[in-house]
Structures are given as structure tokens and as C-alpha cells.
Design goal:
2 copies of one chain form a homodimer. By secondary structure, chain A is of the alpha/beta class. Chain A is 30% helix and 16% strand. The first copy, chain A, has 2 domains: 2-18 and 69-176, Rossmann fold (3-Layer(aba) Sandwich); 19-59, no CATH class. The longest helix of chain A has 14 residues, at 97-110. The first copy, chain A, is globular.
Chain lengths: 179, 179
């Protein structure tokens, strides 16, 4: 049976980990200004903040990935998907070595039901082969060997060439319609 | 041109990092007995040591992966392969979270010419899709989507069903013959 299950690769940042919200929280804490999520629409994430070096500082700072909030509905959605799909977490973590360990710990805290067998930290995702990839970045979706599904984030709202889901409820609906 | 290059996934442990030698060094340091490499032939690695818990202790101890010797010829071989192939380091690191950071640092020290784009740390390797996989473990080679190449290690000497290379010189010869 296992061979017949389809596989889904799921990105972490802005798909199960709310990096936008975390950046807003850290920006407010450091600079005293709360940037609304809407300010991030349609532009690169870093450009949403008046201090454009801030996001670069945050992603290199201890704790940023470790304490990120979970995207709404992600935990329940992955548990449900695992009933019918082989679910893999596939996260770009090599650019920021500190994030390797923090992302591993974060997954252990929030997604302990995901086996270490099913976790991949990589640079580019072009050699990852699954039936589906859920990601927020065109740079990953464009080189995907399976079916690309764009998970809505502020920065990707103007892209129209992908299958798009705006929430984990929509992602479940789309994937289960393919069973 | 880049699209036409073939891709090679290269395992770390016992392929570019000499984990057998490192285990022998650590065993001798802790227990005062030097186990010859030949004692590892044809049996699981841990069984080569009178104290069969030793290897388990080592792989969970800080520094074990970080200070492992480089396999003879690996650095020059990978530099040469990169002239004609897209080379990826694909290492199982998720079972031992500490090894994530240590393996990243080890690569930065010995293989700084490998971009972070081309590094993958994963659990199982079944979703990795490259034209070739060079690995010492049947459990990885059996689920490989490309051509499997077994790199000789003590524990795998009795396996006869794989394309086998005994050294990096042989690996280069095999891969370049496919150009």
C-alpha cells in the first residue's frame, strides 16, 4: 500500500512557520513600530520594513526561527494529510547554519508526529522529487519535479501562474480532491 | 549548458568522511584497544567493537562528526567531478540533531568549494532525485531514483548486487566513462 501513497513536500517558512508574523513581532520589539501584514503584500519581505537591514539581522539572530509562531491550522492539517499522503518537511536551511538546529528543535516541539525520516534541510530544492510541493517561493516552485502549489504569503500575492492555496483548509481540500 | 549536466548525490559518512577510522580512533582513545579496519569487514559497524555500545555513544557525542578524517582523495575527486557534474552532498543527519551543525561545519572546513545550494541533510533519501547516488548503505542505494554506486566500506563488502567503487579514483573513472 505504501508505494501507492502520493508524497507531499511541505516548506517551513511561511507555510507552517509564520515568519512574516515573527518578523513583525521582532521589528516591533526592536524598533517600536508595528508593521501591518498588508505592508508586505506584493513586495520582497525585507522591503516591507523601513529598516531594510532588519530582516537580515533577525534571520541571523539566535531564536528567530526557534520561536516563530505556527501558521494557523498547520498542525491539524499535516496530521490529516498523513492519513493519505507521505508527508515530508523540506526546508531551505543551509544558507543560515544556525537555523538548522533551531528548525529541527522547532519541528520537535510543534510537529513531533513527523518522523526524522521525513525531514529534509537543503539548499535548493531542485533535486527533491515528490508528487506535490507546497511552498511560498517561486524559486522553489519553478524547479519542482511534482505539482507545484503556492501557499499564499504577502510577498507572492501578485504571482498568478501557480495553483494557489490561501490557507491550510484550502490545501487540504485541493490535495484530497486528488485522491 | 547547465541543464545538460548530470547530477551526482554524494553521501558523507564513509564516502567523504572516514567514520570507520574515526570510530577506531575514538575507541582506542576511550578503551585502549585499537581495532583493525579488517575487523569491520562484512558486519554492521557497531559489531566490530567488543563494546557494542561504543559506536552509539560516539555518534551522540559532541565532536565525533566534526573531527572525522576526510576519506583519501575525496577533496580532489569532488573538485574534478564538479567540472562536469552537478555535485550534491546528501547526508542522513536528522537522526542525530547534533550532527546537523557539526556536519555543516565539517563541510565548511574541508569542502568549502561546495555551495550551500548543493547540500542536503535528510532522513531517508528516497525523495532525492539525481542521476547518480554514491553511498555505502544498501538502505539508501535501494531507494535511489538514479544509478546507484556503492562506495566500499567495511560493512558493505559482502554485497554483490551494486556497481561498486573501492576508491575515489575508481569513482571518477566510472562517472567520467558515462560522459
Amino acid at each position: 500500500m505504501k508505494q501507492q501513497r502520493k508524497s507531499v513536500a511541505i516548506d517551513m517558512d511561511n507555510v507552517i512557520a509564520d515568519i512574516e508574523e515573527q518578523a513583525i513581532i521582532w521589528y516591533e520589539r526592536e524598533l517600536g513600530v508595528r508593521i501591518p501584514k498588508e505592508a508586505m503584500h506584493g513586495i520582497p519581505e525585507k522591503d516591507a520594513f523601513p529598516d531594510q537591514e532588519a530582516l537580515f539581522r533577525f534571520i541571523h539572530a539566535p531564536g528567530f526561527f526557534r520561536t516563530a509562531p505556527v501558521i494557523a491550522g498547520a498542525i491539524e492539517a499535516l496530521q490529516r494529510l498523513m492519513l493519505n499522503f507521505d508527508v515530508y518537511i523540506v526546508s531551505a536551511a543551509m544558507e543560515f547554519p544556525l537555523s538548522l538546529y533551531e528548525k529541527h528543535q522547532w519541528l520537535a516541539e510543534h510537529f513531533a508526529f513527523i518522523s526524522w525520516h521525513n525531514i529534509v534541510f537543503c539548499g535548493d530544492k531542485s533535486i527533491i522529487h515528490t508528487d506535490y510541493l507546497i511552498d511560498d517561493h517561486p524559486k522553489n516552485l519553478d524547479f519542482c519535479r511534482g505539482k507545484a502549489i503556492m501557499f499564499t504569503a504577502g510577498h507572492n500575492r501578485n504571482h498568478t501562474q501557480y495553483n494557489r492555496v490561501n490557507s491550510w483548509a484550502e490545501a487540504i481540500e485541493l490535495l484530497e480532491s486528488e485522491l
